[in-house]
């Protein structure tokens, strides 16, 4: 069966090949993107350029950076990769996913994740929750359960609850519940599912940044599958 490949698919593949040191495959992927009329963004090109440079193919790396300059993209490869890498560890994806690959599908959510990394304290759940609320108030509306709904959610939890959440979005409610379960003794658990893969990847990165990735399981797909496995 033919599968439609988009920027996200190519971005993940390019990052994986870069990490594996396979620069010829990176060049092949760039060529395939052009054949399929998927325009490489700065992240895709940076992955290929870095792979070529690591593989001592300086000519190919320079040509890719020249293309980035001509297209007026950010051509500082290390900075592009450092800015754009979102660490995830789903069973489905064993390599980090470039944020640039997610941006076309979740532009606001990508901006939120960058906002969190710039302003929140790593490993501090409450700090991350506060920054998400600030983003929703100051920058752009988010589908989060804040204020009274948040208080109601916290009040309903019991120490040993095994929670299944339908609709993770960016992980806000999952963090609220994980934080409350910690306060109650830390014996409960949260399993959250998200049908939108881009949002799920971002949520996983947010949860990891907050330090609750061991307490919240994020599953990509329909809620019925997550419910059967929880």
From TrEMBL:
Designated name of the protein: catechol O-methyltransferase
GO molecular function, one term: catechol O-methyltransferase activity
Entry annotated with the keyword NADP: no
Rhodanese domain mapped to chain residues: 132-218
Family per record: Belongs to the class I-like SAM-binding methyltransferase superfamily. Cation-dependent O-methyltransferase family.
SUPFAM superfamilies: S-adenosyl-L-methionine-dependent methyltransferases (SSF53335)
Key word Iron present: no
EC number: 2.1.1.6
GO biological process: catecholamine metabolic process; methylation
Key words of the record: Catecholamine metabolism, Methyltransferase, S-adenosyl-L-methionine, Transferase
PPR repeat ranges, renumbered to this chain: 6-40
């Amino acid at each position: 069966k033919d599968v439609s490949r988009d920027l996200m698919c190519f971005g993940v593949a390019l990052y994986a090949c870069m990490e594996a040191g396979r620069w010829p495959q990176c060049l092949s992927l760039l060529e395939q993107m052009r054949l399929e009329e998927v325009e490489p963004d700065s992240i895709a090109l940076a992955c290929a350029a870095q792979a070529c440079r690591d593989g001592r193919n300086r000519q190919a790396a320079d040509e890719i950076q020249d293309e980035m300059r001509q297209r007026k993209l950010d051509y500082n490869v290390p900075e592009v990769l450092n800015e754009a890498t979102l660490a995830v560890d789903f069973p489905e994806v064993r390599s980090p996913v470039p944020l640039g690959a997610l941006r076309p599908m979740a532009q606001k959510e990508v901006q939120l994740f960058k906002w969190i990394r710039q302003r929140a304290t790593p490993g501090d759940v409450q700090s991350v929750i506060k920054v998400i609320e600030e983003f929703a108030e100051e920058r752009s509306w988010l589908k989060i359960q804040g204020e009274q709904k948040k208080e109601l959610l916290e009040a309903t939890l019991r120490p040993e609850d095994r929670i299944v959440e339908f609709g993770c979005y960016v992980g806000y409610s999952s963090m609220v519940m994980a934080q409350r379960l910690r306060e109650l003794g830390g014996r409960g658990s949260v399993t959250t599912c998200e049908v939108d893969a881009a949002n799920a990847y971002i949520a996983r990165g947010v949860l990891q940044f907050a330090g609750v990735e061991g307490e919240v399981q994020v599953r990509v797909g329909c809620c019925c599958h997550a419910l059967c496995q929880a």
